[in-house]
Amino acid sequence: MTAFSPSGLEIWSPVINASSKFILTNTIETQSPNFYLPQFWPFLLLVGCGLVLPGLSGKRLPASQLFLLAGTAILGFWMARNIPLFAIAAPPILAISAQPFAENIRPLARIEFNFSIVNNIARGTFWPIIMIVGALTFLYYRDFQTGSRIYQFPENQLPVKAADWLIAHPIEGKMFNDINWGGYLLYRLWPEQKVFIDSQSDFYGEKLTREYASSISANPLWVEVFRKYGIKWVIIPPDSALSKELANNNEWKTQYQDNNTIIFSR
Length: 266
What we know:
By secondary structure, the chain is α+β, with helices and mostly antiparallel strands. It is 55% helix and 7% strand. It has a 4-stranded mixed sheet, covered by helices on one side. Helix 3 crosses helix 5 (83-103) and helix 4 (63-78) crosses helix 5 (83-103).
């Protein structure tokens, strides 16, 4: 991919030089998981199973599996972005430790026995065919019967309606956007519109990330940042500090607003 990238070898620079403490400490995925948040509870539960199940089962795990469990768990506690590694590695290993308990639960043992019979009979292309037919049936019902889509974006978290409005009423000039909406806005508006920043802050660099942080928090430097980059319009949450600042600024006019998005233009 390096050979096909317009940046050449420079594409590796953000990876090699990703050592900015400011970026790392202000990005959720590079912080340690906050276990007050429910989305991290399954990880904590899985770690607890990893500590308890091997000892209770009496089955001694190979050293390689123990190192894999411990290593990926430590990485998960260090940075939230590493939790999926543990989530991939742990279940197959813990299933081996849980097997003796499952065998003593008759309903589970009966289900496993029935599955083994079906699996022995239905070898070859049976399961792939069943999965394809099931998936097509599900998609048909969701897409054509109910009119809904699996890939819908949550309107209470992303500027879905605002993006629809922008496509119908495009605004000329460079935008300033909320960092958490950058990826979605790229998906909806690129290449006609280019975002100021998105969540790949390590690629944008510490300088621009600091300029974004000072602007979204309505630090007095926001005026200088907007002048530097020629910002003509803004799409941000209405409850942000910058939104309140622009609402009281005669140079800026509200073009669009809904429950979670407001658009200003100069």
